[in-house]
Amino acid sequence: MVVERRTAACLAVGSELLGDRRLDSNSLTITRTLARYGITVEEKRVAGDSVDQVATAIREMTSRHDLVVVTGGLGPTADDITRDAVAEALGRSIEPSAEVEGWIRKRYRDLGRRMPDVCLDMARVVEGSRPLRNDRGSAPGLLVETHGRIVAVFPGVPWEMEGMLETDLVPEIAAWSGGAAKISRILLLGGVVESDTEDKIRHLYDRFGRENVTILASFGVVRLVLSAEGDEAAARRRIQTMEAAFREVLGDDVAGVDIDGLAEVVLEGLRRRGQTLATAESCTGGLISADLTDVPGASEVFLGGIVSYSNDAKEGLLGVEHETLVAHGAVSEEVALSMAGGVRERLAADWGIGITGIAGPGGGTAEKPVGLVHWAVAGPTGVEARHRVFLGDRSIIRRWSVNAALDLLRRRLDADR
Amino acid sequence: MVVERRTAACLAVGSELLGDRRLDSNSLTITRTLARYGITVEEKRVAGDSVDQVATAIREMTSRHDLVVVTGGLGPTADDITRDAVAEALGRSIEPSAEVEGWIRKRYRDLGRRMPDVCLDMARVVEGSRPLRNDRGSAPGLLVETHGRIVAVFPGVPWEMEGMLETDLVPEIAAWSGGAAKISRILLLGGVVESDTEDKIRHLYDRFGRENVTILASFGVVRLVLSAEGDEAAARRRIQTMEAAFREVLGDDVAGVDIDGLAEVVLEGLRRRGQTLATAESCTGGLISADLTDVPGASEVFLGGIVSYSNDAKEGLLGVEHETLVAHGAVSEEVALSMAGGVRERLAADWGIGITGIAGPGGGTAEKPVGLVHWAVAGPTGVEARHRVFLGDRSIIRRWSVNAALDLLRRRLDADR
User: Fold this and answer.
1) Do A304 and B309 touch (CB under 8 A)?
2) CB–CB contact A41 B18 (8 Å)
3) Could you say which DSSP state residue B300 is in?
4) What are phi and psi of A238, to 5 degrees?
């Protein structure tokens, strides 16, 4: 079966996205959603808050793609010009809608706040378009067809955009894929670097096609995206074969499949065993516990953590011996082990993580350079420590450290299984 | 003096940037560099590895902008098509260059590696263009003029791109600004929502120009970007006047000027007073301490934190009374106050932050819905608590909570000044 391949384009509206600080990340969510229906994003753009610029972009994009998804510029303020730009691009009028005004008024009533008059601007509707109710905010979206192509417009706030993407756009495009599927599976690898992984898997490219394997590396975590296309049953069989082949060469580097990150893997492993975890962090300053508790339901297995930034805190809250700190320094294997053991004991957890290092930019010496990090895991069967010098700036060193510590625990949980 | 306003566009080439994981961040560096010379980026795009798509983008962008900066697609592999696309877009031929081949061969000799034959592809030069030597990698860039406009093409690797931007592009554009400058200043507001801020400042738009004020809202923090253009002295005077006028209407909502975030404001305030801070977090799970410790030098004033996810941890590590937990529940003003006071005492800090809430998606009740968060600050002059129901998903509720707690402390530090 041959299925016509549909293409899409993403346009993010907002002068702030043309500055030197912010990127449009909504396009990632949109791309992921469209991929489920075999629709490929072939072009992405950012335009400023100008009717002219946005209208030009919409005209150019609708001339080339089946679907154009626009985000942002739908709010009530003067720089929210997307509605007018859509009207301009398609040569349509724009008029107030009592129905949409009702939605917005209700939203403010529910919040117990007075609706500012300026919000009425959001109740104007492009001729021939379908306004989309926003259950998570006040700015409505819109869906409009032009010459058989669809322009879908959503608010720029990710949480609002994501809701409308599923409820309003997916039903429109679900039929487009016509039975053909592109199936992906993501192998999550922990404690590895990209080039080593590449070396191990290179010989599989010929067998499965280079274009069906994408390597994404991120601070000691590598995601291998495997994909297969075709009718659904064949694609599923193929992806099964691919996973088995890659697992064979990658062994215990594979931390999980189709799972977001190491925090999820660790929490799931603990949950399966009915065990609990506590963390003691110095250089990561709470990032490990923040990562863990970002996962819903973390409270079932994560008891808590101690951020012992000062030496006093390491002694007082974790019971690290003063003598250990003096003899080996705060950044040492001995202190990491003592932190892991200390927090495990104080919180009566099955497992404890301890981590200490020099995140920089200051604080490094010849013997202990910036980037030196010691981490340890204490568990029912003993303690274990590792160390490494990570390269990069403060924030990069901290990200590598978080993943290194989570990966050590992940491997321990796997090994003891 | 009237200076012609020059505009630029950024094009990132690479199919991997059209997937659901990676964003083009080179454009941020480019935007920052161009801003130094008064050049505004008005359009950003991402195109896949297709000669046709990239050529179309270059044609459209050069028809509208004085400068088009293209990154990526210059390597030696089959999917590196940017050179050919530039030739196609400008209707020029492309030919091997012995000089450029020499650069590449030398690069490999210096690395002590054999040059793969495929690298010769990188030695092909677009007719009439100036090839740019790459001191940090092997792929050369190129600079070409067309109808008085410049197309500059750099490798996608940030470190390589950044080097060539400074050595090859800056000399070309430095003269463009002709003494004119665009100066920006960012007012950071804490504990506010966008629409209220908009209401307060709207009357200033006429005076200073709508296009010179951008509002960026992010989970209880609003950044007001004020800008002024003209010759440098005049622009500086104007931005001074703008800041004074906005400060007058915004009052103590203004947390700082040209400062990254509330964590920096709080740390700076504590440093100025020679005081210290400790945190006790439940629903934010370490995000507050992670935010604080992401700032270099945080260790001077931040002593540490306790993530008391379980009730046992709240009692054992923070000294929250068992009776308080039973009588009011873990998510209550009483517990937030007790956490703030407890961590302040246990870590012997001048200030303590306590925060407890229901981040969801589970755990809500009619009386205490998902999103209910209590936070408190304990300091030398007493304790203070606030609460609110934040809307959104788990991660959004947590971001709002972090900023709310930091803002309460920021206001206390300002008030006691």
Assistant:
1) yes
2) yes
3) G
4) -65, -45
For residue A268, which amino acid is it? Answer: E
* Token pair belonging to A393: 């700036």
Is B185 in a helix, a strand, or coil? strand
Residue B295 gets the label, from left (phi > 0), alpha (psi -120 to 50) or beta, of beta
The answer to whether the CB of B162 falls within 8 A of the CB of B132 is: no
Chain A residues with CB-CB distance to B24 below 8 A: 23
Going from the C-alpha of A270 to that of each of A156, A184, B231, B309, the distances in angstroms are: 37, 27, 63, 16
Distance CA A390, CA A370 (A): 8
Q: For residue range A4-30, what is the model confidence (pLDDT) as tens digits?
A: 578 999 999 998 899 887 899 999 999
Each residue's pLDDT tens digit, A122-176? 999 999 999 999 988 889 999 999 988 999 999 999 989 999 999 999 988 887 7
Closest-CA residue of B relative to A224 is B21
Interface contact A28-B23, CB threshold 8 A? yes
Look at the block and give the residue holding tokens 């002590």.
Answer: B112
Q: How far apart are CA B412 and CA B3, in angstroms?
A: 46
Nearest by CB to B293, which of A77, A286, A361? A286
> Within 13 Å of residue A235, how many CA atoms lie on the same side as its CB?
16
Phi-psi region of B14 (alpha: psi -120 to 50; beta: other; left: phi over 0): left
Q: Which residues pair with residue B377 across a beta bridge?
A: B353, B384
**Residue B355 touches chain A, beta carbons under 8 Å:** no
DSSP one-letter string for A285-346: TTHHHHHHHTSTTGGGTEEEEEEE-SHHHHHHHH---HHHHHHH-SSSHHHHHHHHHHHHHH
**Nearest of B175, B118, B166, B117 to residue B141 by alpha carbon:** B166
Paired with A43 in beta bridges are: A9, B47
